[in-house]
């Protein structure tokens, strides 16, 4: 006589039950495909064609020709250089100044609530409104900034009206607008820090600088990475401020990838070529994001 | 004075259109409806006001879409390219769109409509200035729209300052520069200014370019923006702006130049005559009544034109054709002129017989300029690219680069754009 096995093989789950969970995921999946994957795939397809909106001929498949042109397009490469430059300097400044502001605002002093609220004003104002204010302030003849400079005995600057000073001026405006955002995230991070390490540090007689460098900053890192990621992605895509203030000028001195892209597609109507640039930009933004996330993970591991 | 004359003219317009109604069947398409897309301007405001008159006259329903220039252009191109039929009639800037849109086949050719029964006998196409008639024709003689605006560049100058300094309206580049030098007091009164902003500057640069006998392209359609004449023209233009214009001129579009002039800080500038209405507007201009208008030295008048065109995909072309006739006929055109819109019909400018026109200070200059007008830009597809490319070279020259170096690069880029456009 054979005894039945102790552990019977589980009965196979019927197909209908295995499919049920999929059914619940399907709407979300479909939405993702329609909203994200399809436009992306379509843009990718377009980037392999020579489609010009006003051309009488139908778009032709031209393989990698657009991407090859992109590599030798001086204007495209220069605009990429400017985009990177603005991102690095603007975000760098914002991180340093934002953390400094957060440390100040984290102290208890009279009117702190008011100052915190006022500091957030640039973040909530629309970029175009801010741009218009700065255009007025940076006017070389009538602008208030030159008035101050001259009052301090410094020569007048041309601000956004000279090839040399236009990028620093734009970085200044972007930094002015977004530093409070970094401050806000850093403040939230500071609020979550435990007290014990500080008490220990005090007992050990650490200087404020040592405390900041060895305790606050490392513990704040996860929050700061979030701020860095948001700001880096946002600045790479920066458009409104530059368009409203300089339209990429003087000449092309402040033309970033986004501005060139806009000109290519809506002034020159070169949709195929513009699509190849969209894909390239997407790859860059994605690349930067992945590198930042990876860096964060590494930092966490080492911590 | 002009405003006082309006009710009278409005009445006469009603009488004229009433008379036309008797000789021509405006009701032929009654009950149809069309969509008209126009760019926001003083002209579109008048059109909007007068629209009920057309609807009553023809029985055609018109839905009017008014958008800013850039948006209107983008919407049209995308609509046409995607095979849309949402627009029947559109306002077309011939300077920018003519070649591109005709290549794409987006204009309905009008020649076959201009026959008895379809066109009002009193319409008179030949009444348009020759330059305007040429502007609406493609190289093979196809008429792609009816002109409604002809803008010519003229010299705006301060009559009062010129009289004080014992100067006359300049008739040569040398005289223009001498006057600029004499009147220039940096920080207070600038001697001369023009657009410096990339793309926009290409339009006002056309004046020195034509003055030095330069051309954008040669007879076979190849770029010629770095030949000796063009280099001389850029040397002159950048030199004048560096010496006599405000330091931020590199970012000036027409609005900044105009603002400076209206604020009594500029002695001379060249730009389209369309801005004269704003210069003479006492509410916004400190210099109203003090301004002289002259045909540019060398009897030059770079011009741009706009036309009302019918989309080749329009659902109701006959109704659309009735509309563009009505919106560009003699009576309507004269009404526009009275309201400061620069119109391309000769009959609207019969100065000797038309008292009210004598009250418009710039009317005679405009009339004289239109007689010698030449298109500001060539008939090539990549006009926007060209304006950017040359605009960048102008900016570089303004910022201290050598004109030849800047234009050599522009020549290369423009030729590439021309080659690309031929594919």
CATH topology of the largest domain in chain A: MetI-like fold
Cα-to-Cα separation, first versus last residue of chain A: 63 Å
Count of DSSP H/I helices of chain A? 13
- Name the CATH architecture of the largest domain in chain A: Orthogonal Bundle
| Overall helicity of chain A | over 70%
Any idea what the shape of chain A is? Answer: flat
CATH level-four homologous superfamily name of the largest domain in chain A? MetI-like
CA-based shape of chain B: globular
Q: Strand share of the residues of chain B? A: 5-15%
Q: What is the name of the CATH topology of the largest domain in chain B?
A: D-Maltodextrin-Binding Protein, domain 2
Mean pLDDT of chain A: 88
The CATH architecture name of the largest domain in chain B reads 3-Layer(aba) Sandwich
How many separate domains make up the residues of chain A? 2
Tell me about the biggest sheet of chain A?
none
Strand content of chain A: under 5%
Order of helices and strands of chain B: HEHEHEHHEHHHHHEHEEHHHHEHH
Walkthrough of the structure:
The complex is a heterodimer of chains A (303) and B (423). Chain A has two domains: 16-46, no CATH class; 71-302, MetI-like fold (Orthogonal Bundle). Chain A has 13 helices and no strands. Chain A has helices at 15-46, 65-72, 74-106, 112-119, 121-124, 127-137, 144-151, 166-192, 196-204, 208-236, 240-245, 257-266, 271-302. Helices cover 72% and strands 0% of the residues of chain A. With 303 residues, chain A is mainly alpha-helical. The longest helix of chain A has 33 residues, at 74-106. Chain B folds into two domains: 33-151 and 304-375, 3-Layer(aba) Sandwich (D-Maltodextrin-Binding Protein, domain 2), CATH 3.40.190.10; 153-303 and 379-421, Periplasmic binding protein-like II (D-Maltodextrin-Binding Protein, domain 2, 3-Layer(aba) Sandwich), CATH 3.40.190. Helix content of chain B is 47%, strand content 12%. In chain B, strands 1, 2, 3, 4, 5, 6, 7 and 8 form an eight-stranded mixed beta sheet that branches. In chain B, α8 crosses α9 (228-244) and α8 (201-211) crosses α16. Chain B is globular. The interface between A and B is medium-sized, with 27 and 34 residues.
């Amino acid at each position: 006589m054979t005894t039945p096995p102790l552990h019977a093989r589980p009965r196979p789950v019927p197909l209908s039950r295995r499919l049920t969970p999929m059914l619940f995921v399907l709407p979300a999946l479909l939405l993702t495909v329609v909203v994200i994957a399809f436009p992306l795939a379509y843009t990718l397809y377009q980037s392999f064609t020579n489609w010009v909106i006003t051309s009488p001929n139908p778009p032709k498949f031209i393989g990698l020709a657009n991407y090859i042109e992109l590599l030798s397009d001086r204007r495209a490469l220069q605009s990429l250089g400017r985009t990177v430059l603005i991102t690095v300097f603007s975000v760098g400044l914002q991180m340093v100044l934002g953390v400094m502001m957060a440390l100040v605002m984290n102290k208890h002093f009279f009117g702190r609530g008011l100052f915190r609220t006022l500091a957030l004003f640039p973040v909530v104002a629309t970029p175009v409104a801010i741009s218009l204010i700065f255009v007025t302030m940076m006017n070389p003849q009538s602008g208030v900034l030159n008035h101050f400079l001259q009052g301090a005995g410094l020569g007048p600057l041309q601000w956004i009206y000279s090839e040399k000073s236009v990028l620093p001026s734009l970085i200044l405006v972007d930094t002015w607008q977004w530093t409070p955002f970094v401050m806000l995230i850093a403040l939230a991070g500071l609020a979550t820090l435990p007290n014990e390490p500080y008490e220990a540090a005090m007992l050990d007689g650490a200087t404020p600088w040592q405390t900041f460098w060895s305790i606050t900053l490392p513990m704040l890192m996860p929050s700061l990475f979030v701020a860095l990621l948001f700001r880096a992605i946002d600045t790479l895509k920066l458009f409104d401020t530059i368009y409203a203030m300089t339209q990429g000028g003087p000449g092309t001195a402040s033309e970033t990838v986004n501005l060139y892209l806009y000109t290519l597609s809506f002034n020159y109507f070169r949709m195929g070529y513009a699509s190849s640039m969209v894909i390239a930009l997407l790859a860059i933004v994605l690349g930067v994001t992945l590198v930042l996330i990876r860096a964060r993970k590494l930092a966490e591991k080492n911590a | 004075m002009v405003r006082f004359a309006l009710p009278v003219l409005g009445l006469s317009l009603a009488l004229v259109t009433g008379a036309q109604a008797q000789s021509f069947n405006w009701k032929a398409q009654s009950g149809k409806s069309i969509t008209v897309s126009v760019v926001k301007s003083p002209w579109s405001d008048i059109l909007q006001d007068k629209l009920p008159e057309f609807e009553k006259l023809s029985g055609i329903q018109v839905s009017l879409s008014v958008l800013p220039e850039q948006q209107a252009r983008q919407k049209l191109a995308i609509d046409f390219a995607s095979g849309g039929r949402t627009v029947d009639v559109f306002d077309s800037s011939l300077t920018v769109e003519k070649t591109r849109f005709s290549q794409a086949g987006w204009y309905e050719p009008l020649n076959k409509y201009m026959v008895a029964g379809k066109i009002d006998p009193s319409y008179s196409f030949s009444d348009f200035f020759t330059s305007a008639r040429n502007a609406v024709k493609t190289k093979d003689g196809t008429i792609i729209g009816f002109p409604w605006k002809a803008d010519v560049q003229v010299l705006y100058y301060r009559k009062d300052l010129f009289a004080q300094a014992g100067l006359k309206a300049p008739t040569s580049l040398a005289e223009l520069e001498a006057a600029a030098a004499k009147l220039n007091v940096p920080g207070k009164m600038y001697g001369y200014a023009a657009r410096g902003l990339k793309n926009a500057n290409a339009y006002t640069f056309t004046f020195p370019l034509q003055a030095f006998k330069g051309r954008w392209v040669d007879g076979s359609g190849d770029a010629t923006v770095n030949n000796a004449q063009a280099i001389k023209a850029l040397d002159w233009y950048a030199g004048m702006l560096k010496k006599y214009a405000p330091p931020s001129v590199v970012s000036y579009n027409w609005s900044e130049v105009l603002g400076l002039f209206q604020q009594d800080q500029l002695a001379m500038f060249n730009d389209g005559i369309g801005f004269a209405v704003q210069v003479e507007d006492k509410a916004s201009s400190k210099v109203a009544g003090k301004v002289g208008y002259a045909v540019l030295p060398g009897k030059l008048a770079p011009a741009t034109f706009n036309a009302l065109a019918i989309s080749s995909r329009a659902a109701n072309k006959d109704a659309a054709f009735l509309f563009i006739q009505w919106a560009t006929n003699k009576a309507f055109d004269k009404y526009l002129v009275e309201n400061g819109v620069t119109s391309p019909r000769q009959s609207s400018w019969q100065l000797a017989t038309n008292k009210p026109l004598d009250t418009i200070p710039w009317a005679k200059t405009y009339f004289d300029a239109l007689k010698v007008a030449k298109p500001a830009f060539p008939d090539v597809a990549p006009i926007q690219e060209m304006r950017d490319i040359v605009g960048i070279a102008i900016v570089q020259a303004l910022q201290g680069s050598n004109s030849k170096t800047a234009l050599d690069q522009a020549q290369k880029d423009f030729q590439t754009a021309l080659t690309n456009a031929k594919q």
